[in-house]
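[09:14] KT: can someone run the structure on this one? pasting the chain below
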Amino acid sequence: MRLYKYTLAAGAEQTITARGRFIRGMSASERYKVQVDNGARTDFETGIAFELPNEFSQVRLINTAAVSQVIEIAISQRPVFDNRLVGTMDLNGAIGILTTASASHNTPAKQSITVSTQVLAANADRRSALVQIDGACYVDNSLDGVLIPAGSMVWESQTALVLVPSAGTVVVRILEESNV
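[09:31] RB: done, structure tokens below
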């Protein structure tokens, strides 16, 4: 097996003189095309591989992307297995990713509640909050809210949290982690 790595400008081509039966795309930032010997040009990208029934002697890389890119391929007589995770993901605003934000911990004063109370305001910078209660409470409302038993803890993210004591006074303690 041999690895070949080239930086190709947009639209550029690179011919590799190498014998093999197997080719695998090891890395590239965009799709490109490969042409084996004088065969048809075919779409290719990182993670794609194929084995030909007969040995080839030449591979042409064609950068069809609108930008320059580094393309690395493996050529071998036998299959090359690459168990690195390869693929793309479209998060489309559904998931927040924290890359460099520092965290800050906050422990507001404990609260004693006897009626429906918002104990945690909505906070887009909150990573998580641990809410501890010493008495049974309903989340949101007592009609169809979830009953949390006394002594339990509730994890919350960015949304507000309203607790309704089932009876008497409930002491609420909060540990909140937020982005700085």
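[09:33] KT: thanks! The mean pLDDT is 86.
[09:34] RB: yep, looked fine to me
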